[in-house]
Amino acid sequence: MFVEEGSPTALAWGSSQAFDKMQNGIPGNVDPKHKTKDHGEKKWKKILQEMIEGFEIVAQDKVVVTAEDEKKTLKALRHFSKYFNNLWD
């Protein structure tokens, strides 16, 4: 779903299906206005995807990083620090 098979993230988790198996819902601070369950789930999946994309860039260990890659990486790190305790199943 989120992670490409064979990617560094998939190798670290053991498989690309690791995220699909997490079924503990979403953190309460993802959708503080509680619009709808679907809205919160979509927002949480987007946050997870942004973290994955940013960390995949870091894992590539590029010498030269584009401004877009740097932006994605910084966003991933902000999400990671904010939601760190919510990443465990």
Quick gist of this model?
This protein is mainly alpha-helical.
Describe what this molecule looks like in 3D.
The protein is mostly helical and about 90 residues long. The protein has one domain. Helices cover about 55% and strands about 0% of the residues. It has helices spanning about 10-15, 20, 35-60, 65-85. The mean pLDDT is about 80.
Q: What's the β-strand tally?
A: 0
Question: Largest sheet, described in full?
Answer: none
Q: Radius of gyration over alpha carbons?
A: 14 Å
- Alpha carbon gap, first and last residue: 17 Å
How many H/I helices? 4
Based on CA inertia axes, which overall geometry fits? Answer: elongated
Total domain modules: 1
> Helical residue percent?
55-70%
Strand content: under 5%
* SSE pattern: HHHH
Mean pLDDT: 78
Low-confidence stretches: none
SS-based structural class? mainly alpha
Overview features:
56% helix, mainly alpha, 0% strand
List the helices and strands and how they pair.
Blueprint: H1 8-13, H2 18-21, H3 37-59, H4 67-83
Helix pairs in contact: 3-4
